Structure formats: structure tokens, C-alpha cells
Amino acid sequence: MEITNLTIMEEFILLGFSEYPNVQGYLFVVFLFIYICILIGNGLIIIITNVDSALQTPMYYFLGNFSFVEMCYTSNILPRMLVNIWRQKRNISLLSCAAQLCLFLILVVTESFLLAVMAYDRYVAICKPLYYPIIMNHRICVQMVFGSWVIGMPVLIGQTYQLFSGPFCGSNKLNHIFCDLPPLLKLACGDTSGDEFFLYVDCFLFSLTPFLMILMSYIKILRTVLKLPSTTGRSKAFSTCSSHVMVVCLFYGSGLTAYFHSLSSYSGSIEKIFSVFYTIVTPMINPMIYSLRNKDFIAAIKKTCSKSGG
Fold first, then answer.
1. What is the pLDDT of residue 4?
2. Do 48 and 300 touch, CB atoms closer than 8 A?
């Protein structure tokens, strides 16, 4: 009987960008700068939306929660990545890897549904303005945020458990910047077609479904806006939605491209660049998009700064 050697994995080695040894110091400085910008930018949004009474509306309530998710999202990845670059010790235990993957998946799904909720908020505000205070009352808003957090938890926790309950064989080197599904499936032993199938199902349920909800909301918004007699009204309606549309395009464009490319042919290098963009660069850009393009938010910052200065 032929005996197959099976390596019992106790930890993985996150390779990250170790193939570029001469630029590790520069990478550390760049990623540390980006992480600080993410914390400051999103933290400022959370503080301003809670402090300023003029921003106590559903739109800014959702934006504050979205910024909190962004901070959690990057804090799940960047601190360990920075430590790995600084210490040149890239090992991560199976338990830590499973926890990182599970939290990452939950946060991605939460962000997807929060974007859908924010699109629905804009739809009600523009298409049904008279009913807006009734439909988007505080209780409904809290329920929407809570639902965005918990909707995918049971499935994603179960999927993470299923993946890590099976054996991993061969090399323990994970050619990625964090514990993500495509590179982990590449190291899993045996038939992974079932895991890949459920990953496609997850992408449809938790990514494409909220994206279609966003698309439907904006189709209805567009129809309503084009019927407005006033040019000023049309431009104001478009300006309130433009920031959200840009964030949606960044999030879904980079995320879905990375995942579907990874599943079709995972090579490592290209996927790492995509991952950096949608897990690190996008959360840094989002606060700039929402704050710099929003007159109410800029006014609230000036008012808060003048109060603290006075």
C-alpha cells in the first residue's frame, strides 16, 4: 500500500511582499502612513457625525457605521502585516489565521450590505421625500445596521470552520498579505470543489445581491431625478449620490475582480496588488471622497474646529 506523506500544519507563513527584500523599509513606512490616514479619516467621520447636531440624520448615521467597519476591516489586516514587515517573522497560527479570515469575511459582507442600505436611504430621500421621516426612523436605521452585521455571520463562521477542520498539505507558505480564501483553498488537501462552489454562492448572496439592490435603487433615483423640472434640483440630487456611487465602484470593482480572478487562476502577485487596493487603499480614499465632496460635512468640521479653538 502506497503511503502518502501528509504534513500536519500548525502554522502558515504569510509571504506578503517578501519577494522584494530591498524595499521592505519603504513598504513599512508607506503602509504605516496609510493605516494612520485610515484611522484619522474614518475616526474623524465617526466623531463629527456624532458630535454635530446638523448631521444627526440617517445618511450620516449609516456613514459613521460604514467608517467604523472600514477601521475594523483594515485593523484586522494591517497591524499584523506591519509587524511581519518590521520583524521579518511572517508566521501565523492556524487559529489566528482562521480568526482573521472569518472576521475579514464578516466585515466584507457587512460593508456590502451597508452600502446597499445607504443606497436605499438615498432612494427614499429622493423618490419618497414626504415619507422619509416615517420610513427611515431611528428604530429602522438601527435594525438595518444590525442586520448588515449579522446577516452573513452563521454562514461565514460555518464555512471558515469547514475549511479549517480539513487538513492542509504540502507547503505552509501562503502567498498573500493575509489569510484569504483563494490562497487557503490552494493549500487545502483533497477535493476543494465543494468549498469553491460555496465561495461562489457566498459571492452571489453577499456581494452580487447587495450590488443588485444598489443598482435598482439608483435606477429608480435616476428616473426620478430626470423628471425634476429644476436644473438646480437635479444637480443637488446627483451631488448627494455621487460620493456613494464612487465608493461603490471602488469597493465592488476591485473586490469582485480580485476574487473572481483568484478563483479562475490564482498566481499570487496580481491578487496581492488587488488585495492591497480593496483592503487598504480604498478605506483610505473613502473618507476623502465623503468629506471633500460634502459641503455639510466640511461646514461641520469648521464649526467643530472653531468651537475647540475658541
1. 44
2. yes
Candidates 113, 111, 11, 125; CA nearest to 59 is 125
Could you tell me the pTM of the whole model? 0.88
Q: Categorize the per-residue pLDDT at 1 as very low, low, confident or very high, splitting at 50, 70 and 90.
A: very low
Whole-angstrom distance, CA of residue 247 vs CA of residue 111 = 11
261 confidence band (pLDDT: 50, 70, 90): low
Please, what sign has the CA dihedral across residues 188, 191, 197, 200? positive
What is the C-alpha separation between 150 and 29, in angstroms, rounded? 35
**Helix, strand, coil % over all residues of the chain, rounded to 5:** 80, 5, 20
In whole angstroms, what is the distance from residue 197 CA to residue 301 CA?
47
97 touches 179 (CB < 8 A): yes
Burial letters 199-220, b for 16+ CB under 10 A, else e? beebbeebbeebbebbeebbee
Instruction: Write down the pLDDT at residue 274.
Output: 78
User: In whole angstroms, what is the distance from residue 56 CA to residue 52 CA?
Assistant: 7
For residue 298, give the C-alpha cell: 466640511
Can you tell me whether residue 30 is helix, strand or coil? Answer: helix
Question: DSSP string spanning 122-190?
Answer: HHHHHH-GGGHHHHT-HHHHHHHHHHHHHTTHHHHHHHHHHHHHS-B-S--EE-SSS--HHHHHHHB-S
CB 261 within 8 A of CB 271: yes
pLDDT at 150: 93
For the chain, how many helices (H) and strands (E)? Answer: 14, 3
Q: Residue 12: in which H helix or E strand, if any?
A: strand 11-14
| pLDDT of res. 2 | 40
CB contact at 8 A, 232 and 255: no
The mean per-residue pLDDT over the stretch 219-241 comes to: 78
pLDDT of 260 > 70? The answer is no
